[in-house]
Amino acid sequence: MNILLAGGAGYIGSHTAVELLTAGHEVIIVDNYCNSCPEAVRRVEEVAGKHVASYGADVKDKRTMMKIFEENEIDCVIHFAGLKAVGESVDKPIEYYRNNIDTTLTLLECMRESGVKNFVFSSSATVYGEENPIPYVETMKRGSCSNPYGWTKVMMEEILEDASKADSELSVVLLRYFNPIGAHESGRMGEDPQGIPNNLMPYIAQVAVGRRDHLTVYGGDYPTPDGTCRRDYIHVMDLANGHLKAVEYANTHKGVEVFNLGTGTPYSVLEIIHAFEEANQVPIKYEIGERRAGDLPEFWANAQKAERILGWKTKRTLADMCRDTWNWQKNNPQGYKK
Ligand code: NAD
Ligand code: WQD
What we know:
Layout: E1 2-6, H1 11-22, E2 26-31, H2 38-48, E3 53-56, H3 62-71, E4 76-79, H4 86-91, H5 93-114, E5 118-124, H6 148-166, E6 171-177, E7 179-181, H7 200-208, E8 215-218, E9 230-231, E10 233-235, H8 236-252, E11 255-261, E12 267-268, H9 269-280, E13 286-289, H10 304-310, H11 318-331
Parallel strand pairs: 1-2, 1-4, 2-3, 4-5, 5-6, 6-11, 7-10, 8-13
Antiparallel strand pairs: 9-12
The structure holds nicotinamide-adenine-dinucleotide (NAD) and UDP-4-deoxy-4-formamido-beta-L-arabinopyranose (WQD).
UDP-4-deoxy-4-formamido-beta-L-arabinopyranose binds near residues 86, 199 and 231.
């Protein structure tokens, strides 16, 4: 299949590109590089050993996107293109609503005008909100979010459900990611946050490589086994494989289907730090600090539906996630910059 990856130069999109290319699909990447760089696409080509058609363009730009849809015979769209920093979304809600929702609407319009029927969407565990019990199951109602980023995901899921109700030929797969970490096994691709990392694993990796002095653990007094928050961390290549299965599923089904992509096992912040130290024999300096506003004590996935329907299951361990993160970071201390 020919698969258009909107936001395909980013962390999850680039790893998914490799997985799709390796499975024999063609990919077309569209990215405006607002949170990535063309070097990521070059690395995709290097690792997969294949050429990739890529466009430096804004997915909100309908005219340019229509040209891309006309130039390429597209079978499926995967929509990764979004702004994703939770804290920033509180300060810049208008930018987040504009970018995340507008990219989705533009893609849906281009698909309708070009007769493309398959859509896979990067959603998030954040849509379960603050009220649902854990582990999260797809049958639960979407909850209320504590920040505009989360609301954009809730709204986009609703938009996609309505679009699907109005077009019985449309196939929409909503993938709710839990906490993606890790990097491609080659050490040539990985997560490359701009500025100070917001997320735990890239922060640990930058402490390990000497770019940051120490990690602050946000809160040590949560009602969890060791007092630190617990999350469901998933290797980015397992997540990438979930997209491969989702694309194949979308091609043979109609309507909307939702899948959690997680491992079903939670780990605490302290467990992640110690797993990283053990897997890589590198010390991580940390101190326990204040809680971060908006953090839930713990959540993880019930991942049975993806296994039952997509035949997808995670294969990689927490030690793999730590080893691959470090392999990427130590070989690329400044990320994709030389
Ligand atoms: P990322 O920032 O690395 O990738 C997103 C890509 O989209 C970037 O390359 C960025 O330049 C591009 N982009 C953004 N707006 C664009 C626009 N208007 N036009 C063209 N390109 C645009 O983020 P990621 O971690 O790879 O996340 C991919 C998707 O998955 C996002 O939608 C994110 O919200 C979602 N998600 C991520 C996580 C996570 O923890 N990483 C968890 C759940 C969901
Ligand atoms: C993980 C744990 C922190 C940094 C976020 C989004 C979510 C989804 C995934 C997109 C938490 C702790 C972190 C640090 C720390 N993204 N931590 N010190 O918050 O679970 O999820 O990314 O959809 O919507 O909210 O991930 O990596 O930021 O944090 O102690 O410097 O690590 O408190 O318990 P989070 P994270």
